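Support reply, case 0932

Customer input (verbatim):
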Amino acid sequence: MKYNILRYLPYFFLFTVIIIDIVIIYALLVTLKILEKEIIAALIGFVGSVLGGLLTLVGVKWTLDSQNRKESLLKYEKANYVFTELLPKLIAVYNGIKSLSPQNWFQTIDAILKDAKALETKASELSEEARFVGIEFYREVKSIDYYAGVISEYLENIRPGVTDEEIQERLFTYYQGLAKADNAILNLVYKIKHS
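Our regenerated output:
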């Protein structure tokens, strides 16, 4: 409530100054005994035009604020949609990388590859929606797209002689990049919601 009052304070101040000016002009006219019908009509016209201009100014500000709120809400909805669409696929890749073990190595690698390709496809599809939200948000979605592509490319082209530990270490490096982009997207969604 305090924010709304402070927002309209300049208009109230302007209105008050104009009213005080009108009272002073009227007092001068009464003191100098120059109260003719034409002057009074001009004064009423002046007051009417000033009040009309002030109301127009307040209306325009109100309209712009309303449009900004609608645009902010639309950005939040798109950002939240993109994040919630990416989240299950991110979690699948995260869980796959974290669950790598010698007992189910090849099955898990195949699952990570499949999940990384699905994540890359989804991030690529959602990049236009992310562009609408803002450049920072778009950049983080493209980071997820990049890391998912790097993971799938790496797993498709593993060289012979690379140890399981080296593969796991490399996947954890990519995991950290994904996690960083994921966290940045979450923070941006929160920031957009509360702006």
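We compared this against your earlier run and they match. Two observations from our side: The two ends are 17 Å apart (CA to CA). The chain is about 90% helix and 0% strand. Please reopen the case if you see a mismatch on your end.
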